[in-house]
Structure formats: structure tokens, C-alpha cells
Amino acid sequence: MVVKPLTKNIDMSRPPMSVEQYQGAGGYVSIKNIANGLAPEAVLQLVKDSGLKGRGGAGFPTGLKWSFVPMGDNAPKDKYLVVNADEMEPGTFKDRLLMEGDPHLLIEGMIIAAYTIQASKAYIFLRGEYTESEKALSQAIKEARKAGFLGRNILDTGFDLDIVLHTSAGRYICGEETALLNALEGKRANPRAKPPFPQVSGLWGKPTIVNNVETICNLPGIISHGVQWYQSLTKGIDHGTKLFGVSGRVKTPGCWELPFGITIREVIEEYAGGMQDGYELRAFLPGGGSTDFLLPEHLDLTLDYDEIGKAGSRLATGTMIILDDKTCPVGMVGNLMHFFSHESCGWCTPCRDGLPWVDQIFIDLEQGKARPNDLQVLHDHVEYLGPGRTFCALAPGAMAPLGSALKHFKEDFDAHLSKKCCPYGTH
Amino acid sequence: MSSKVIASTSIKARPLSPSEIDEIEHEMTLYPDKRAVGLEALKIVQKHQGWVSDESMLAISRYLDIPVSDLEGVATFFNLVFRKPVGRNVMLFCDSVSCWIMGCESIRKHINDKLEIDYGETSADGEFTFLPVPCLGDCDRAPVMMVGPDLHRNLTPEKIDKIILDYSNKPGTGKTE
Ligand SMILES: Cc1cc2nc3c(=O)[nH]c(=O)nc-3n(C[C@H](O)[C@H](O)[C@H](O)COP(=O)(O)O)c2cc1C
Ligand code: SF4
Ligand code: FES
């Protein structure tokens, strides 16, 4: 049985599979299952039963999200599926692998999702810098159309679907799903107030589902091999497999498809080969730049959403960033703060004015110009920009590494103040 | 990117080229309204001209019937819409966390020294514009940067020297016409 449904076809040393090769490897079977009489409600039930949770960061149950879309004769005729391929979270490099490595898997998943909510138009919102993904996806969309998996009356189901590949022009906030909808409509990508939720009123006011690339890539396996198979994949609590990545000073940084429930230690020590010679693990961000630092004492935690949550952080994107003992934690957090400050969309005051202030304090710390009270100002921001205090989750995401760093690396912050420079030297 | 507001009546729309119009028309078939095509049109013009001048901005505004202030609002929102001329090759240098941990600052200094430019600047010979960009999603091969559409990984000073040489001799990637 398949154990790596997301990456089984991926071999980056050759071009991705063509539609024929992909079908030869068992691809598009789920669409045939649908054509053989699997109704949208039945697909929805399978996705709900599978326990699939969104891989874009929040871990929201996918079937539940879909179930809010109005269905039936009274539902609006136009609905949309949008794939969030804006991957820009610092330290996150997983969706790129899927799109460049096996674009047909994403397209097959999109057909399933669109069919379930009965949307006949789908957009892929792709980060503009991902030029290789753009090539792979546009080629695959063409092939899928030619093979009859896209277009009108797909495999005689009476269902139509067109996929449009939209490339963005670089702004992290576009990954926030309501900002993404504004960007697709050609507006400035400020987030929207919720409710109404996109499932009811999204793109051009129509019911819309936004899902992450990796989430969508889980669907073909679930529909082709069934819920029981899917649930047998995990070693832990959450179902299925996940792309886990490690970057920083490890021996073999990379991204691997692994079952949930594997320990962090296994990923870092076995897959990533452990720390490079001469470096020790100081701490790590478990799921990209918007997560709280965890420490070596957390290495034996299992990778499940709730387990990481209980330790005070988030599994989020599953791509870990390693802080070693020779890298300045204050500098690392300063780098993240600079990113978040630059990418604030400017819509709400705490984030627009608060993040540049935080950014400036980190510059002052580095240059020996910070004042003792500045650390208190940082602490205050962790509170003022925390969850629920700002219009969207960008600012609280920024506060996750900051708040945890202030807790774990207090002596490093203090040393910057007392020595009036970075004790680790220049970078 | 520019602080210049198009208030002056002395700036006139330039005519869009036939290929620009073709591509904009194609985009119009993919979206239900013209407004959604605004960003697409900006990108199309940038692809052909290298950047978006005031004259181009006015031309798009007129062609799509979008107020120029709205279009400017979109153009200035996005990091990769250039409202100032750029060099023949745009270097997008990842300055995010994993690349920083892996020493991108020393690579940046090497580029500073070689080309005598820092972020936001264009080399004197007009070959390279140097810009920082958030995480390029290749953190396991840090440090990384793009030159035009191409990604370069595991950067070292030696690799930078070679890249600069290679692209200096190549047709530009910032502009296709
Ligand atoms: C600032 C910000 C940036 C985000 N960027 C992304 C992104 O690049 N890709 C993504 O899939 N989700 C991103 N998200 C999460 C999305 O808002 C949304 O939760 C996700 O696309 C839903 O898909 P899922 O249910 O399949 O996880 C971001 C959220 C925030 C607040
Ligand atoms: S929190 Fe920041 S990114 Fe989100 S809406 Fe407010 S200003 Fe924009
Ligand atoms: S941090 Fe540079 S590619 Fe991700």
C-alpha cells in the first residue's frame, strides 16, 4: 500500500510526471471513482471521516470548512475554489516541492475539492517568485484539459471545471485567506472582516473555499484508497502524512513526507542528520517563523497538532528552523521582526505602528543603542499585538517568536544591553 | 516604490504595444471583471518594459477603466511591481531567517563590494538591481537568491562571482522586448 501519498511520484532529478505517466502511477483514479457515481455529499463525508486538517498553518478540519458552503438548488450558481500557493512564511519550503515535483497531484485534488462544493471555477494563487512552479503547473493544467480531466462535462459527470493560475507580485499578507481574495479581485490585499466567512461570501461575494496546496494534495489518496487506509498512515493522533522540513545548521537540511506522531528528535537527528560538527542545538521554531520557540527538552514530543500546542507552540507549517549555539537568538528574532514589520499590510494601528517600533528596538540592540526600558517595550508589544488584538493573525504570529524569545533568552537580551553590542559578533 | 504622484497633466498615457494588449485581453477572459485584471496588466507591462512608468500606469488605467489612484494603490502595495527603472537583471536576495542563520549577510557584503550597490540600488553599468526578498521557499539550500526568473542556491562568494559574470554576458531578464 502507498505510504507516501504526497511525494511518491516526486523525483527532483527529473521533470515531473506527464499526465500519462501520472495516470500510469495510479493518478486520477479518484476522478474515475467520482465519475462512477460518487456524489458530492459522499466525497464530503469521506473527507470529514478522514480527519484531514488544513496544512496552511491553522490546522482547521477540512471537511468541516467545506460543510459551510451553501449547497443545493437554492445555493448561488457561482462558487469558487482557491488554492493558497502563496508560500512566504519564513523558513517554509514545502508547497514548492509539491508543485514542482508532482503538479498533477494538486490538480487532481483540486478537481475533488471543486466537485464537492460544486464550484466550476478554481484559481491557484501562486507566489510570483515561484517561476518553476508556474511552469510545471501551467504545463500540467494544459495536459489535464487535453486528457478530459478539466473543461466541460468532465468524464461525463456533467461537472465543469476550469483552473486559472494567478501569479502574485510579492506580499506575505496575500497568504491570509481574505487578503488573498482581495488580491485576486485586483484590490490592495488588506484582510476582510469575518464574518461573513469566505465559505458563504468570498471571491466576488460568492461562496469560496480557500485551501493550502498540501491540504489539497491529500485528497486524491483519501478518495482513491479510502478512509481506513488514510487513517492507518499515522503513528500518532492526527491523520495522514505531513511534509516536515528542517533548515539551519544541520548536516542534511531538507523536507520529507512523514507520518504524524513521529518525534521531533527523529526528524532532526535522523532525517536532517543532526547538528553540523561544532554546533549544538539551542532551540527551534517548530513550524515556520510565526511559531513559539521550543527547546532541546521538547525533542521527544511527537509531531501532532495538539502535542505541540500543549508545549506552548504550534505545529503550523511543519517546517522547523534550527537555532544553534553560535547564532545570536536576538539577531535571529530581529531578522523575523524586520520581516513582519516590512510585510505588515498597514490596515490596523497596533500592527502598522507596533511592528516597526519593535524592529527598531532590535536594530538598536544590535548597535548597542538600546535603553533598558526597551525590553519592557518589547514585552508590552507581545501583549498589545497578541491574539485578538489586531485585525488579522499576522501580528500575533510575529509575537510568537518574540514572546518566547524574551522568556528563553533573557540573558542574551540583557547582554546586548550591558555590553552595548551583540556578544556573538557581527553576522 | 515611487513617491511621485501622477498629478501633473503633462504626463500622458503612452500607447500600449500590440503584444501588451493581446496579453491583457487574454487575462480579461480569466476574470469576471476588469478591475481584477489591474495587477495582471501591471505585471504584463513590467514584463515588456522592465518597470511601470507613469505613462504606462495611465495607459493601463485608461485601457481598463480603473481610476489611476486605485491602480497606483495596488502597484505600491506589492513588492515586485517596480515604479522606478531597474537594471537589466533584478537580483532578489533572500534576507529571511534561515538564509540569515546560514550567513547571507556575508554574501550580501560580497555583492556590495563587487557591484558597489546595496539594497534598492542599480549598478553603474545598469546590469543589476539588488533587492531583498522574503524567504524564497528554498531554506534547505540557503543562502539563496533569484536573478531574473532563475533561482541560485547554496550561495558562496565564488558562486556570486560566476553569476555576475554569466548574467553580464547574457541578454537581460528584466525585459523581454
Ligand atoms: C499573514 C498570514 C499569512 C498566511 N500565509 C499562508 C500561505 O502562504 N499559505 C497558506 O496556505 N496559508 C497561509 N495562511 C493561512 C491562511 O489564512 C488559511 O488559513 C489557509 O490557507 C487555509 O487553508 P487550509 O485550511 O488548507 O490550511 C496565512 C495566514 C496569515 C495570517
Ligand atoms: S494585523 Fe497587520 S497585517 Fe493584519 S490587518 Fe492589521 S496591519 Fe494588516
Ligand atoms: S529563508 Fe531564505 S529561502 Fe527561506
Give a short overview:
Chain A has 427 residues and is α/β, with parallel strands linked by helices. Chain A folds into 3 domains: 19-231, NADH-ubiquinone oxidoreductase 51kDa subunit (Rossmann fold), CATH 3.40.50.11540; 241-324, Ubiquitin-like (UB roll) (Roll), CATH 3.10.20.600; 329-419, NADH-ubiquinone oxidoreductase 51kDa subunit, iron-sulphur binding domain (de novo design (two linked rop proteins)), CATH 1.20.1440.230.
Describe the structure.
By secondary structure, chain A is of the alpha/beta class. Helix content of chain A is 42%, strand content 11%. Chain A has 3 domains: 213 residues, Rossmann fold (3-Layer(aba) Sandwich), CATH 3.40.50.11540; 84 residues, Ubiquitin-like (UB roll) (Roll); 91 residues, de novo design (two linked rop proteins) (Up-down Bundle), CATH 1.20.1440. In chain A, the strands form 2 sheets. A 4-stranded parallel sheet of chain A has the order 3-2-1-4, sandwiched between helices. The termini of chain A are far apart. Chain B has 177 residues and is an alpha+beta fold. Chain B contains 7 helices and 5 strands, in the order H-H-H-H-E-H-H-E-E-E-E-H. Chain B has a 5-stranded mixed sheet with strand order 2-3-1-4-5, with helices on one face. In chain B, strand 4 and strand 5 form a beta hairpin. In chain B, helix 1 runs antiparallel to helix 2 and helix 2 runs antiparallel to helix 3. The longest helix of chain B is centred in the N-terminal third of the chain and has 12 residues. Chain B is elongated. The chains are: A alpha/beta (427), B alpha+beta (177). Chains A and B meet through strand 3, strand 5, strand 8 and helix 14 of A and helix 2, helix 4 and helix 5 of B. Bound molecules: flavin mononucleotide (FMN), iron/sulfur cluster (SF4) and FE2/S2 (inorganic) cluster. Flavin mononucleotide binds next to strand 4 of chain A.
